[in-house]
Specification:
Bound molecules: D-xylitol-5-phosphate, zinc ion
Order of helices and strands: EHEHEHEHEEHEHEHH
Strand order of the largest sheet: 1-8-7-6-5-4-3-2
Oligomer: single chain
Shape: globular
Largest sheet: 8 strands, parallel
Number of helices: 8
Strand content: 15-25%
CATH superfamily: Aldolase class I
Distance between the termini: 20 Å
Number of strands: 8
Structural class: alpha/beta
CATH architecture: Alpha-Beta Barrel
Length: 225
């Protein structure tokens, strides 16, 4: 599946997979998904610690599915480009953690990946609307970043609506990605609000058939857009 042309991007989060079997998790959904979402956490920006460059490097070698790296880390200026150099399709860093998001976006694109800006639960999107042309994706958290399995916060979809309006009026080639609590009963509202890329951890890897779960999510999203 060619991610750049997909109307709806489904990106299962490996955070909900068995970390001792990440390659198997990747192959269990390959063919049913557009990207694999890789949650990088440093125990500082969020109180959780996950994976870093060595694991991303191994994943890159283990799967052809494009890697969507979501960096929940401090000092992305220091680390983010390394993920692009490892071959990540898209590298998303948090607005709250970056001193100069525009310069970092340009560096990511120069290193060969897409550039993504993430907005956590308590951050208004309005402050970042003017820099959206520098980005390929805008990731709007629909929970507080840090852990999987949290309850979807529908009020955060107002940010998706605001960003979608700006993308339309500005004719931007921008994917609007939602992350957190996305499941069969919530993906429709997110799609209706204007999201076109959907991260789902628990709803995919908590299901008995992860690929079938991804197909159901895609159908629900497509029906609501
Ligand atoms: C949390 C991560 C999410 C997480 C989503 O900070 O960014 O990607 O894996 O997990 P679910 O789908 O279970 O909410
Ligand atoms: Zn994520």
């Amino acid at each position: 599946m060619e991610a750049a042309q997909a109307d709806t991007v489904i990106a299962p989060s490996l955070l909900a997979a068995d970390f001792a079997r990440l390659a198997e998790a990747a192959s269990s959904v390959a063919g049913a998904v557009d990207w694999l979402h890789v949650d990088v956490m440093d125990n500082h920006f969020v109180p959780n610690l996950t994976i870093g460059p060595p694991v991303v490097k191994s994943l890159k070698a283990a799967t052809d599915v494009p890697l969507d790296c979501h960096l929940m880390i401090e000092d992305p200026e220091r680390w983010a480009v390394g993920y692009a150099e490892l071959g990540a399709h898209n590298v998303t860093f948090h607005a709250e953690a970056s001193a100069d998001p525009v310069t970092l976006a340009k560096r990511l694109r120069a290193a060969g990946s897409g550039a993504g800006l993430a907005i956590d639960r308590d951050t208004p999107v309005e402050d970042y609307l003017d820099i959206l042309p520098e980005f390929d994706t805008l990731l709007i958290m629909t929970i507080k970043a840090g852990f999987g399995g949290q309850e979807f916060l529908p009020e955060l979809l107002d940010k998706v609506r605001t960003a979608r309006r700006r993308a339309e009026t500005g004719h931007l080639h921008l994917r609007i990605e939602v992350d957190g609590g996305i499941a069969e009963d919530t993906i429709g509202a997110a799609a209706e609000a204007g999201a076109d890329a959907f991260v789902a951890g628990t709803a995919v890897f908590g299901a008995s058939d992860p690929a079938a779960a991804c197909r159901r999510l895609r159908e629900r999203a497509a029906a609501s857009r």
